[in-house]
């Protein structure tokens, strides 16, 4: 696929998994991403996305896996994303464990998953 991410995807409020990775998507990740309240997994790496990561991504309180690597995002990681990492962030400890967050400042890359420590 190529071009912008289809706008219709932002209206699928019951969507749990979105794998948009390794396409040729361009343009921005729109603020509508924050309306996907049930989204648990978002893979949008290896595209040609640009612009800032929308702060609305912090609305995705069910999110436990996020990959936005190998794009051309600009700006800072939105502070709203940090609310997904706080100890009181909603998650099922038996299923998902505690959150882990990693950023690489040389390449706009975010990898977020819940991790069960040994």
Automatic annotation (TrEMBL):
KW Magnesium (keyword) present: no
PANTHER family (alphabetical): LRR RECEPTOR-LIKE SERINE_THREONINE-PROTEIN KINASE FLS2, RECEPTOR KINASE-LIKE PROTEIN XA21
Keywords: Leucine-rich repeat, Repeat
SUPFAM superfamilies xrefs: L domain-like (SSF52058)
InterPro entries to which the protein is assigned, alphabetical: Leu-rich_rpt, LRR-RLK, LRR_dom_sf
Database matches in Pfam families: LRR_1 (PF00560)
Protein's recorded name: Uncharacterized protein
């Amino acid at each position: 696929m190529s071009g912008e991410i289809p706008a219709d995807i932002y209206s699928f409020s019951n969507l749990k998994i979105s794998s948009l990775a390794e396409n040729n998507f361009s343009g921005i990740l729109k603020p509508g991403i924050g309306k996907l309240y049930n989204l648990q997994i978002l893979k949008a790496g290896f595209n040609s996305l640009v612009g800032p990561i929308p702060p609305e991504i912090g609305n995705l309180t069910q999110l436990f896996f996020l990959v936005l690597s190998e794009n051309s995002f600009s700006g800072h990681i939105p502070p709203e994303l940090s609310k997904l990492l706080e100890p009181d962030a909603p998650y099922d400890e038996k299923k998902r464990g505690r959150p882990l967050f990693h950023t690489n400042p040389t390449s706009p890359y975010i990898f977020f998953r819940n991790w069960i420590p040994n």
